[in-house]
Amino acid sequence: MELKCDRFLSEKDTSQTSPELTKLVSLMTDSCLIMNQSESVNNNTQAHGEKLLKGFLSDLDDLNHGGFSGDNDMISALFRIVVNLLKLIGHLLSASRTRKISAKAEVELLVKRGNSPPEGDFRMNISGAQLTSHWDIATGNTFHGFTTAALLSYKGLDESLNCCFDHLETPQKQTYKINSKVVTATFINAETTNLKKPIKLTFSHLKKKNEKHMCVFWDPELDGGAWSTLGCSTVSSRADQTVCSCNKLGSFAVLTVLCDTGVCRPTLNFCTLDSKP
């Protein structure tokens, strides 16, 4: 199976305007081209996949060192590059489960190889988040002898992305703050929207408080990129975690709903101000 490197090469234009992404784009494009020049992608080993994964996490750490900063387009480009690299790495791995932790990220990758598409449910766990889905959703309509799934969390990216809430419905005096790690979820399935079955994401809260929470998805189509609830619903929420159901793949987080002078209680659709004794 030949890898399609065109979608990787197209990100070079982005890296020219965003030097911070240059190392990730170069790693992605060079690895893809080298793999296609080899006799067969199938000849690459678990060691090659882990080497690429190590380089990817190292470059991601460098990018996030001191806090990631960039405009909406740059954030969207970062998420696209991460998705493409996770798919590329999963293509190489032979181990059924690979988990790595770096200074600024944590990732788990699952691989199923065989003569027929895998069946049943699967679960991925990383610090701060859990994903549950079905192998037929991860595979999609075309099976190439293997199926991959990946879940990655970013350490500290929530602080950099406490913005871009303009496309959320905001009642008067209501504001938002990210209260989970930001995660990226991707499958080998080329269809990333309108999944036949939704994925379930369970987020641990960064701060355990009994406040109203909502699940959001990073939508790159909204003014270059912004948080949106489209395609995601909040299944349940308590002080320490929120469960989300989303019919798409991409990057996700949980927001705490706040008021300028109080707390938006989870049982209400408007701000209830805490009165001082």
Characterise this structure.
InterPro entries: GAIN_B, GAIN_dom_sf, GPS. It is found in: Membrane. It comes from Carassius auratus (Goldfish). Its main location: membrane. One of its GO terms (biological process) is adenylate cyclase-activating G protein-coupled receptor signaling pathway. This protein is α+β, with helices and mostly antiparallel strands and 277 residues long. The protein has one domain (6-259): Chondroitinase Ac, Chain A, domain 3 (Sandwich), CATH 2.60.220. Helix content is 27%, strand content 30%. The chain has 7 helices and 13 strands. It has helices at 6-9, 12-17, 22-37, 46-64, 72-92, 135-139, 157-160; strands spanning 97-101, 105-113, 121-126, 129-134, 146-154, 174-178, 182-187, 199-204, 213-219, 226-228, 232-237, 241-246, 250-259. Strands 1, 2, 5, 6, 7, 9, 10 and 13 form an 8-stranded antiparallel sheet that branches. The protein has a 5-stranded antiparallel sheet with strand order 3-4-8-12-11. It is globular and about 55 Å long. The relative contact order is 0.13. The model is unreliable at 266-277 (pLDDT under 50).
